[in-house]
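Contributing new records

If you add data, match the layout below exactly. Sequence lines come first and carry their own label; structure lines follow with theirs. Keep one chain per record. Anything else will be rejected by the validation script.
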Amino acid sequence: MRLRFRFVALVATTFAVVAAAGWARAQDYPLKPVRLIVPFPPGGGTDIVARIVGKRLHERLGQPVVIDNRGGGDGMIGAEAAAKAGPDGYTLILGTNTTHAVNAALYPKLPYDPVRDFTPITMVGTYAFVLVVHPSVPAKSVKDLIALARAKPRALNYASSGSISHLAGELFKTLARVDMVRIPYKGGGPLITDLLGGHVDLSFVAMPPVLPYVKSARLRALAVTSSKRSPLVPKLPTMLEAGVPGYEASSWYLLLAPARTPQAIVARLNQEIASIMQLADVHAGLSSQGAEPLTTSPEEAAAHIRSEIAKWAKVVQVAGARPE
């Protein structure tokens, strides 16, 4: 009995020492540059948002925030690198619904676990896609489009670039009970070119690149995919308002650290990001990318990841979707 008591006491003492050491590290944090992994190539929306946030985070931490672009594999290369990094607060990743939700649904064997291998810090922002059609498509509204698609199954096609664009289309097909042909593209540039040329009928695309063409009437916007209207196009209805019950396909940015990162460091970073998101230039920078700034607690961010994984897993299962 005495031996057991000594063992329990030793374990408790060990945990106390480890916790104290973690707190001490957090108190001194950061003592060197922080690496922020962007799991996509330079120049894209995720990269731009990371640089906006990273610049301000550098000012608040007093250490450089180095952007590390690790593109490839639908974000899996960068996410795996972050998952395997040391849990000391010096490696972070700006994850998205592709890296931390959709990939889990599309790929049976990911090289990382989007829940187990990461410690969420906070959501950073959300952004919606817009449903656009070429003017040759005789649909002035989402209801018109649904009626047209039902009258002529598989006569319409939709272009997609990336997994979330793909699944936004599949979710529409499922909820609207229509059948359309998917045309996959490797990049948004070629997709928009073909959409403008009338080679494809419609697409669910990020707003900033296509809004100029909507304003010039070269494309027709029917709805946004978020649960509420976008400030970029406040007159455009949501898919729900346009007659597709249950439709919501927003994308998001979420800051994470490797699993087992000290909670004191996570709390510090959460607090700093919350302050950064109040700055006018950060709001403007994210808005230019079609994103709405947002912060959450680590627990709320973790719950959001789990709910998104479950949501897209159902879409993939019903649609029988495969990676592009």
